[in-house]
Structure formats: C-alpha cells, structure tokens
Amino acid sequence: MGWPPGVYLQTQYAVCAGTSELKTGRYGQNCLIQFEDFANINAFRLLNKYRNKYLTFNDDIQGTAAVAVAGLLAALRITKNKMSDHTVVFQGAGEAAMGIAELIVMVMEQEGVPHAECMRKIWMVDSKGLIVKGRDHLTAEKERFAHEHTQMKRLEDVVHELKPTAIIGVAAVAGAFTEQIIRDMVSFNPRPIIFALSNPTSKAECTAEQCYTLTEGKGIFASGSPFDPVTLADGRTFYPGQGNNAYVFPGVGLGVTACAMRNITEDIFLTTAKTIADLVTDKDLAEGRVYPPLTSIRHVSFKIAVKIVEYAYEHKLATLYPEPGDKEAFVRLAHLQHRLRQPHCGFVQLARRGHVCSELQTVTTSPDYARRFKDNI
Predict the structure, then answer these.
(1) Cis omega before residue 324 (within 30°)?
(2) Beta strand pairing status for 55-58 and 32-36?
C-alpha cells in the first residue's frame, strides 16, 4: 500500500533533519555532517537551512565547487591572466554548476570586480537551452544567473555566440562538447579551458583524446572521470587531470573538526581550492595536469587541513583554545592519534539515494584530536 510519493519524500527529508539533530545531540556541536546526492531544490534548501546551525556542507555543491575552481586557478597559470578575464559557459545548471559559479564569482570579487559584473561573466545552459531573463519556470537559483539575451536552444550556438574562454560540463550529457564546439573554442582562444566534469566516463562531455587532438594540444582539459594519457602525432604526451572531490572532503573534514569550527563558510572552500591549485607544479601543468597527482592525495589533504586551521584562527572561526603555535604539528597530531578518550565529535555523511536517506559513515573523535579521518587521508 505505502504512502503517497510526496508524503513519503517529505517524511524521508524529515528523517534526515532529525538525524542531523540526533547526531549533534549525541556527539556534540563538533559533529560534522556531510550531505550529498540530494535533488537540486532540496540540496540548496537543506544547505541554507542548516549551514549556520550545524557544522555541515553539501559535497555536490561545495566540494565539487572547490575542486573545479582549483583546476581553474591552476589553469590561470597557463592562460596568464585573472579569473575576471574569463567568460564561463556551463553545460548544466544544477547543484554542481551553481556551486562552481558561486565560487568563481568569489574569486573575481577578490580581484576587485563588482559583483554584478562577475555574474555577467557566468552563463548556464540547461535542458531547455540558454538561461536568459524572462524564460519561464526558472528556479530562484537559476534566476540569479539569467541574463538579457535571445533564447538559444543548442550549446553549439551558445558557444559560437558568446565565445567563452572556458566551458564546464556538469550535466552528465555524453558528448555534449561536440567536435564543432571544441574547434570553435580553440578558434577564438589561444588556450581554451575545457572541463568535462561529468561522471562516469560514459557520461563525459568529451574525452581527453578529443580535446587534445582537436585543439592540437592547446586545450586545458580536466575531467570528472579518469582518462588515459594522450599522445599526439607530434609526440607530445598529455596526462589529463581528474577533478575528484576526494581532493576536498578529507582535508576539509580534518581541518574544520581539528579546530572545532561551528559552521563552514564559503571561504573555507575557496581556501581549499587555492591550496589545491598551489600544489600543482609547473611540471604538472606542462604535462596537462591542473591537479596534483591523485597519488599525492594524502599530502594534499594534510595541506588543506593546515590552511583551514590557519584561516579559522585568523578569522576567529575556531573555538578550540589555546591556539596551537605549530599548526602543522597540531593537524598531524589530529591525524595520527590512535587512541580515543571521551569521544566528543564525529563525521556523518547523509546521502539521498532513490527514496532512502541513509547514514553512510560515522567517525568519532576525541578531545586530544584522536583518529580523525585517519582512514580517509
């Protein structure tokens, strides 16, 4: 028999909210709650509702944003200009696109560009075409990125008309970056940025081989799925970087819990993006990578945690005092301590999969910073 679908879904989200309160009640205010795989409208609603109440973040929105912007920041070392010099077109206008766009705007604002001008540099294409002013049935999130322009249905036409410097695919539309789009991108950009971030591989907007071959190695490529190295006819070999959220959440989790932050601001994810980008070497860039090798992810996570702790104390976001003098030693102790005494906080990941809201993982920690995310980093 069951409940009507609408009632069932509402009940499941109520269970998620209750779980949040239960976990913080059990582990204390330092319990970190990570949400992911929620529907677009509910993801933003729940994030906005709880972000200032609990220590929580949404990995699909904020984690994806941090790793994508990290790749863009690294790419700026190749294009040799600022973020505000770029125009970005998104294939997709869901959680990932919105999160990435918001963080891009933050970078541009830090470069001294007015907010309204930053927003005009971001364009989005969803299943109905280019998001423009006056289009019917736009969500509040999409409305923020709607601009005055003629309605256009096809991504190829949008790219040809707007001539973006970067295209980012996050809608899981396989092959969305057609040969024509890639050729157009390199025709009006000396080093076009082409991020095919959808996964799995079968849903990628284009392959690494297509990007490097059609741009003759000029394209700056990143993907959400792993791709093999690509060797061009002239003998150059490129090793595409994978924009994996695994670069983000272990270090963020370790950093924010180590210093007992009470909520996670967007600046934490911008700090994370900058840290990842700074760890990309010139050798990485020369080989086509805009991310550090995944084999170095433990080191990346450690550096992120240290930067977050530094930021938290500098901006009065940490609540654990006295402030440690040696932040690296402090984070290392938080990472390596094995014994638990008087557990006081934890990590909870909540995911919306189908019609089930499930608790996926709980890791408790102690006042002497024990065993936090040890198996994740």
Answers:
(1) no
(2) parallel
Per-residue pLDDT tens digits for 2-39: 444 443 344 355 445 555 554 556 666 778 888 877 77
- pLDDT value at 145 more than 60: yes
Q: Which helix (H) or strand (E) holds 359?
A: strand 356-365
Name the packing angle between helices 64-79 and 266-278 (round to 10°). Answer: 40
Structure tokens at 5: 């679908």
Kindly state the tokens that stand for 279. Answer: 């760890």
Q: What is the pLDDT of residues 53-86, one digit of tens each?
A: 889 999 989 999 999 999 999 999 999 999 999 9
Strand duo 241-242 + 122-126: pairing? unpaired
Extract long-range pairs of 20-28: CB within 8 Å, 24+ residues apart.
20/50, 20/54, 20/56, 20/348, 20/350, 23/346, 23/348, 23/362, 24/54, 26/346, 27/343, 27/344, 27/345, 27/346, 27/364, 28/344, 28/345
* CB-based contacts of 113, cutoff 8 Å, min separation 6: 84
345/129: higher pLDDT: 129
pLDDT bin (cut points 50, 70, 90) of residue 366 is very low
pLDDT (mean) for 260-282: 97
Q: What is the model's pLDDT at position 46?
A: 85
Scored b (16 or more CB within 10 A) or e, 273-296 reads bbbbbebbeeebbebbbbbbbeee
Q: Which two tokens stand for residue 361?
A: 């993982």
CA-based radius of gyration for the chain = 21
pLDDT at 113: 98
Q: Which residues contact 311 (CB under 8 A, 6 or more apart)?
A: 267, 268, 271, 317
Residues 279, 258: contact at Cβ < 8 Å?
no
Mean pLDDT for the stretch of residues 124-139: 95
Which residues, in sequence order, are CB contacts of 263 under 8 Å at separation 6+? 51, 52, 53, 54, 55, 56
State CA 33 to chain mean position distance.
17
Q: Give the amino acid at 361.
A: Q
Any idea what DSSP says for residue 52? T
Which residue type is seen at 132? V
DSSP 8-class letter at 324: P
CB atoms within 10 A of CB 319: 12
Q: Is the pTM of this model over 0.70?
A: yes
